[in-house]
TrEMBL record:
Belongs to the myo-inositol 1-phosphate synthase family. One of its GO terms (biological process) is inositol biosynthetic process. GO terms for molecular function: inositol-3-phosphate synthase activity. This is Myo-inositol-1-phosphate synthase GAPDH-like domain-containing protein. It holds the Pfam family NAD_binding_5. It comes from Streptomyces flaveus. It comes from the Bacteria. Residues 219-323 form the Myo-inositol-1-phosphate synthase GAPDH-like domain.
Amino acid sequence: MSAEAFPSESRMSESRVPESRVGVWLIGARGSVATTAVAGCAAMTAGLHPPTGMVTETDLFAGSGLPTLSSLVFGGHDTEDCPLPKRAEALAAGGVLPHGLPTAVAAELAAADREIRPGGPLPGDSRDIEELVAAFAADIGDFVRRHGLARAVVVNVASTEPAPVGTELPPSSLYAAAALRAGCPYVNFTPSTGLHHPALASVAVASGLPYAGRDGKTGQTLLRSVLGPMFAQRALAVRAWSGTNLLGGGDGAALSDPAAAAAKNAGKERVLADTLAAVPEGEVHIDDVPALGDWKTAWDHIAFDGFLGTRMILQTTWQGCDSALAAPLVLDLARLVARAHEAGLSGPLSELGFYFKDPVGDGPSALGEQYAELGRLAGRLREPGARAPRGLSGEGR
């Protein structure tokens, strides 16, 4: 499929749109991660909770001109119909959100829910690819116009889909194409195909938009990106590295499909391949445990050799709440990519590899090196040549 299959509509005119608010259009907008991000943003804006887990709220990004949390406006696509306030209540009952928070930010949740449009394709949907992309792009464009937004960033936080078979565009790629058509930067926080589909390569280049992804690094792979370099730097020979993930909720159900699990594991394996001198034996297994809900456990067993061939073992266990780990990263990425767009950056933002298992563009896989790259991006956004946003501020930390 060529770039002509998705002709670009006229972009949002920056000269006509007041630079005051930034849209965050979430694919999977009624899921746990999206709900936690919306509720968390409202809670931090109201001063109810500190910005724990948000790198963009640290001194690293002071003076980088990021949009404030209070300037973010939420909307999105989803195939589910459970309203955000009700979803937030369920998350609070499960211990994901603090008790009482859904009530405290009920108005903000309801406002975001009013901006969620039906996704697709659903069973029986007769629209072809072009009609679906056009409809999704129109929803995003309408959102931007009605709210007078300076720009909007599309972030995919939907459940993992299986890798596509053949040339057909999977749903994640339809949403990615719609984002480009609407003139919006795109972030793929999932291992789904999104902009990685060959049919969209030329479209992404021609769009002149920044984009980032894929698959948010929130737990097991985050730890691997620290431990892998440690073994390499200390000249310790890793013989085997095996892992198991126990997941509940929607992600666990989606990843019970072997094809979806394979897409997820590819990023985990890439980190080890890139940070170790040789790829060790071992695999990663993913088990769906519905009783865990939004919580996950990741266990790693690492066999390595020390001096004189002495055999040793390191085992790690990571237990965390998936949505609470992911939501601050989603907010970070929305702010960073929006500012990159404002500053005139385009193409793959490899400096954001810090956030991903399988990042786009060229860049290191070790977390320390990725953090240094992120710091360099912060510096670029502070440079005099980067267009400063009007009416937006990254201050107030």
